[in-house]
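Field: COMPLEX_INPUT
Field: COMPONENT_COUNT = two
Field: RESIDUE_TOTAL = 1230
Field: MODE = joint
Values follow.
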Amino acid sequence: MRKRANNYYSLTCKKLAFFTVLAVVIQIIGLSLFILGFFPVKPTLSGMSGLESFYPLGFDSTDLAQNTSALPPEKLKSLYQELSGVPPLFDRLILMVIDGLPAEFVIGKDGKPPPEVLKKAMPYTQSILAKGLAVGYHAKAAPPTVTMPRLKAMVSGALGGFLDVATNFNTQAFLDDNLIAQFLRIGWKMVMLGDETWLKLFPDMFARHDGVNSFFVKDTIQVDYNVSRHLTTELSSTDWDLLILHYLGLDHVGHIGGRSSNLMGPKLMEMDEVIKRIHSSIMQTQETKQKRTLLMVVSDHGMTEGGNHGGSSYEETDSLALFVSGQKFSDSESRKEVYQVDMASTLALLFGVPIPKNNIGTVIRDVFTSLKDEQQLRILELNSWQLLRLLQTHLNELGCGRFSCKSERGQNYGPERLCCSYLDATALHESWKSKRLLRSVHGDDYRSAVLGYLEFLGTTSKWLSSRSTDKPIGLLVSGVAALLLSCLGLMTLTFLFTREVNFKGSRDISHTDNNIWKWHLEENFVLAVIFILILSMGSSSMIEEEQYIWHYMTSSLYLILLRKTIQSMKNGCTLTLTAEQRKIRFHHIYYIVAVLVSGRILRGWHQGGVNWSYLPDIAKLLEQAGTAHIKSLQLLSMFLVITICLAVLLSLGLRTRVSMLLVLVYLFPVLLILKQILRLQDSTFGSLSVRSTTMIQIIYAFLGTSSAGILLGTPWLMPLQNPKTLSSEVSHESPSKLPFDGFKDSLCVIGWGYMFSWCLLQMLLQQPINSVPVSLLLLQVVASIHYFSGGNLRHKQWVEVAALYYVGMAGHFGLGNTNTLATVDVAGAFIGISSHSTIISGILMFIITYASPMLALLSTLMSVCANDVRTVSNSQDVDFGYLLKTTVGYPCLVPLGLNSILLLAYTIVLLGMRNHLFIWSVFSPKFLYVCATTVCVYVGVSIVALTATYTCIVFATRSTLKGSCRDRLTER
Amino acid sequence: MSQVGGQTETSRLEFGSSSSPSSSILLQPMNHPRKKAPESTDAAVPFASSLKLLLLHLICALGLPSAFWVAFNSYSLSLIQNSAQTLLVVWAIEASVVILVYSLLRRNPDQCSNVKAIVRGLLGLLAGALVNALGAIVLGAPVGIQHFTKTIHWSLLMSVFTFVPAASVFGSSWTDWHRIFAQTKPIGSTDFMICFPAHGAVIGAWFGAWPMPLDWERPWQEWPICVTYGAIFGYLLGLVVSFGFVVYNNQRKHAKGE
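Field: COMPLEX_OUTPUT
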């Protein structure tokens, strides 16, 4: 990745490149292993199950699928009933979700009834349970026990992986097959009252809705009143088929005071009252024979003693599933422990719709005991077909037929055993059917068929769910080990490289310089920052508020640098310092102040984080002030970017013609972007016309070609020596050293081109509010480079690269990014794209999100040229390999090394915290960001390394050509 | 008293020998005579007696608890509830204590009157408050109007810890300020007494800001309460260290003197 070695290079350069690439490859392998282990990828089926779900597996279902979507709802409904062979037991459903209610509260624990206090709090519920009008289950929820994934599990019967969140970033809507969508298909009219999560998951599916949000956790009364106030009208109206009531109050009570809070009793009574109201209304409608209604009281998750949830303890996963109806449920002594996912298949079969495709749950049989034997078997069969369909996607095979189950029964394991048990069950079912036709059916046959099915369903469900939640520890550990290896490798390389550079440096230049081995405060601090960052990773709130750490540490580093600059301004030295040098010193102070002040403005621009994101910040103030202000600021920042770039260009000291050429190259894209900004003044971002899309594509093309042109052209066109140095130093420089100046200047110009193009691109892509931060970032980076370049402060180059990296990371948060996925700018990812393409939008999103770290990495190329290459030009022969190594060694090794340390530390933290409460809500999103940062570092470093290598090769070729020319001339 | 004289004599010798490597790092041979000139006058009082210094350290250290005591008992103010007013009381009391104490230690007591040292200290208080406020804001202190008075009073307190002693003692001597704050090369007991508490306060405040982003929802996590705690802790620690150094140096001088 780093450099393709030319024969001309010294061996060490090749070795360095080789080992760096090796370390990076090991890192990639380790990271992939870790990701595979941490986010298990499970195959899911897309689309919705339809008519084909009532046919066995081998059935050709292509036209059935078409049929399903083409049929009108009423027709489909009757067709479903006809095919399934099981009449729906109920006509309409009331789904009452009590957020955070532990099942213990209602049905007790370990077969014992709940404590007397709780029994008294819910008298009605207890009475209907005792009468057999209700039947309750412990529905074990899977972690993460937070509302949205639990609701998804209830309605789809599937356990979503974490990456689901990341893959459908642009919508929160639930796209997998689920009950709500199935109900909508058969023409149900649905009403939703309560938590607005439902509305986010199922937009436009509800005929009526009143969403409440769970933002005000302190409120336990109003949030439930807002649901119950509709109850009277909704219960009296008959137009709906599904009524969802989602009560948040109990969860809020838990968050405030825990399980044994004083508010818990009254809240349970309130819930009991609601159940009573609904149940009496059900009884009424039942009597008038209008509709048979099922009330399903469920909770999405439980809560710990302290009222929290999210983790996987028994208290948190113990959620409730309570079936309440007007008829008596038949008594059965079977298990009262089911899984939350079982609800989807049970409800689907109760209401005669196909089971959702990705369901891993099994039916709760007790609810169906009023059905006839063949209907009960049919229900088990339908569930088995569905699970088998899902199982096949895991097996990537056509069917179960190829296994020979009879012979090696004992040795079979995993999916093969599942297949065998399915075949057993179907065989038993078939024999039962044939015996029934012959009227010789026996109770035992029926029981064995049921047991066969239950065996298959239970094991398959368990196997499928373990596939989606298990984190194979072996994979995780081996991933971490590989990351550790590569991290150690990179550290060793950096250390060896430092030693070599210092050795050469001390031999070549500085006999007076004894302190090249001495550690300075800022160097210690750079390392301390890494240590502090690693420490902060262990705390979830520090991850949520990471922006504070980066800003604090970066500012502290620059304050230490400020102190160092002042340190060198000793009064006593003034005699030896010329006026010029004093001026430079003051310039250094200005640079640092510029970095600090812009850093503070960046910090204030977006409040960021999670806990204090509501606090006022500049961005919010500007958004209140209106778009006119934002536009003028956008123009101002554009002006600032152009000014900074021109100033940098001038400070490079190139020939006037070269500078003019470079300005001309960028003139056109700059004008186009300005026009774009002005045009957008009237139209909002949402309505991008075709013309403006074309225009933006033209700008992309211009920026791309100009950077590429500069990259390819500069090394060939750049004079081998700088005009300035030519005039001043030609007298005492031997001609053999001259190519170095040209090399340096070319890198400078290319780096400038990259930075300018990148900033212009960001001006176009970022939200208008972020244009000022982008220009401030550019200011910070340029000021840092200038600070580190001139003067004899003798900063080590790795300190410079590390400081730039830190500025880049602080700026990343300054642009409004956080460690939650919510702040990814999705709208920006579609700017200038005419057709939907996930890859291109992904790249654009990456460019927008990682604007700042990438700018910092690209700028290291410029910092290379600003650094003095004294060490190089003092050596006698033109050694391009050595030159290349010394110039881009640190800009490549330091970001890779820093990132590898942080990556390794974070994976170890994740390994330790894989069962932590916040693993899904806090740690996993941050891990995605860490991975993306790693990619960003790879991309940035490889651009820097390849550019430098290319330039180096060109200059090597040019100097050999020139040498041979000279030889030819002398021969003549 | 004669013993004291002996001490100062040896300490000057000691100082002379220790200063040469440090200045050689600066690569400025020209520098030697110029740099030495002010310091050799300083060497007349670099190490005062341990007892006197203990007293001075104690006065500075006890100023803080007494200020908090006054704030709590006379005005019933506490740092957590009324941070701005409490800080006002604390810095006002501590400033008067510190200015008086350090004006006793002023450089060139013959040429510079006590009043002048006090005035210098007051000027230093304002200048230092400005510098500290800017530093805090750069590091992320909130800038809203509701935080304005808090920031001002906090930076005045920080100024009392950092700038005021140096201003009272040195006035506007760039060399001394540079030596103490930029290079951290204190020489003599007064330098120790200025340098260590000041650095302690700054470093303490820096660490004190760490708990602020944590979501513990404690009232003391507000700006500038925990930073003030950190600064005060660092300051007191600095006083202890400074006293330790003074005693250690005195004993060494003592041993050498005999």
